[in-house]
Amino acid sequence: QAKREGMDNYQLYHSGLNLQTYRKFMLQNDLRKALERNELIVHYQPRYVVQEKQMMSVEALVRWNHPDWGLIYPGEFIPIAEETGMIGQIGKWVVEAVCKQWNEWKGKGLPPVRISVNFSGQQFLHKNMEEEMKSIIKKQEVDPTYLEFEITESTLMSNQSAVLKMINSFRNMGIKISIDDFGTGYSSLSYLRKYPVDIIKIDKSFVQDHSDESRALITAIITLASQLKMKVVVEGVETNEQWEAMKAMKCDEIQGYYFSRPLPSLELEQFYARQLEGENIRKAEMQKEV
Ligand code: C2E
Ligand code: MG
Ligand code: MG
Ligand code: MG
């Protein structure tokens, strides 16, 4: 009935659908046009490397600047992209945007940062993914060692041999692989042994639940990861207490609102510039001392 000609949005909204259903219906339709209308944007969240005491990489997080609904977060539209088969195109667009951004920062003379990109399961296992990534990276002339692809535990468990093959081919290109939201899926720790991944990102639920059990699990993951030569990033650090606790537990990297929220590219640039200045100041002071 909704497809009936001449039925405008107002009528559709008043035809008995609740707001949530209405919104989803509209978003499903609009997502097809979002790419050509340039409505997607990427924000970048700094990741802090504990040992170096500075940001050395950022996570790319897509947003949709919808003309009527305002800023829409990926938690809402990525599932719609998967349902409607748009995820492949959107994923490609994100990687392309990230590569262009990397080059823009390079052109401005900023020391390169690594950029991590999220992949949904469907997207990671898409049949031409490997070739498509190769061609984007080649066209945009990005050093692939500055790229990181994040996949989730559920992706790891979905089609094990295909995932393993994909991980290996991306790693052969020089791209880092991380497991995102680690601990929320139903895989066992022994999965880590099976997959040659570089980084484990512990899900924010572990740091935000201050229980002894959660802290013990984080410690166990950090210990195991170091034996497997993997780095550990703890996500979702919001308070000073959590920040200090994670540093004390010797995780490799910390990501969360406490260090920085995801930022539009220009703000990220300013954040980075401030860090670089701070570093320059420190170096200058050290020179004075000798
Ligand atoms: P994620 O990959 O686990 O990304 C981290 C999410 O946690 C982001 O939400 C980020 O804004 C949020 N976050 C960061 N620090 C904190 C903190 O201290 N506290 C809290 N409460 N949250 C924090 P966001 O940007 O809404 O993204 C949600 C999810 O959408 C991502 O989770 C990722 O799975 C997915 N996503 C984002 N961008 C893309 C994309 O380009 N492609 C695909 N396939 N998925 C994406
Ligand atoms: Mg992620
Ligand atoms: Mg995560
Ligand atoms: Mg995630």
Automatic annotation (TrEMBL):
Subcellular localization, as worded in the UniProt entry: Cytoplasm
Signal peptide stretch: none
Domain EAL: residue ranges: 24-276
Protein name, UniProt field: Diguanylate cyclase
Native species: Sutcliffiella cohnii
Phylogenetic classification of the source organism: Bacteria, Bacillati, Bacillota, Bacilli, Bacillales
